[in-house]
């Protein structure tokens, strides 16, 4: 009896693998966000092959993003992006800001001159003021493969209230 059950199980496994081989394959992408006291960290995709990590220091308002260049051996920090969010969000550091930070996917069309952007943007919100800012990272894959410890800056796409117009009640 158990030999018959084993043969049914084997046939079922083989049929399942064959059917699974013909189904479309979709990659799974995941981003992560975490925070601890006065610090937040998040990840987001730059393109299909590269991921960036973003840090927000709540005390200073410094937003930092970095990409590891794996085309170099050993891997190195290829580009490090920096920007201070305090002025964009109209925040006084003395008032103990309460930040939220996440990443999201946003495809931005290249601008004149071939400027390209990463496929992720960084959203930074300050809860007390009700302000939010959206930041994009200029990214040129051709230049990145040769990059070692290059500095870049985030581009501000939007800064303004999130409590108006029914976004948050």
What do these coordinates show?
- With 169 residues, this protein is mainly β.
- The chain has one domain (28-161).
- Helices cover 15% and strands 42% of the residues.
- It is built from 2 helices and 10 strands.
- The strands form 2 sheets. It has a 6-stranded mixed β-sheet, with no helix packed on it. A 4-stranded antiparallel β-sheet has the order 6-7-8-10, with no helix packed on it.
- A hairpin with a 6-residue loop joins β4 (62-69) and β5 (76-84).
- The termini are far apart.
Cα-based radius of gyration, to the nearest Å: 22 Å
Tally of separate helices: 2
Strand neighbour order, sheet with most strands: 1-2-3-4-5-9
Rough outline: globular
User: Which stretches are low in confidence, meaning pLDDT under 50 for 5 or more residues running?
Assistant: none
N- and C-termini, Cα separation = 64 Å
Strand content: 35-45%
Number of domains: 1
Structural class: mainly beta
Order of helices and strands: HEEEEEEEEHEE
Integer average pLDDT: 79
Short account of what is shown:
With 169 residues, the protein is mainly beta.
Topology:
Layout: H1 2-22, E1 33-36, E2 39-45, E3 51-57, E4 62-69, E5 76-84, E6 99-105, E7 117-126, E8 131-138, H2 141-144, E9 150-153, E10 155-161
Parallel strand pairs: 5-9
Antiparallel strand pairs: 1-2, 2-3, 3-4, 4-5, 6-7, 7-8, 8-10
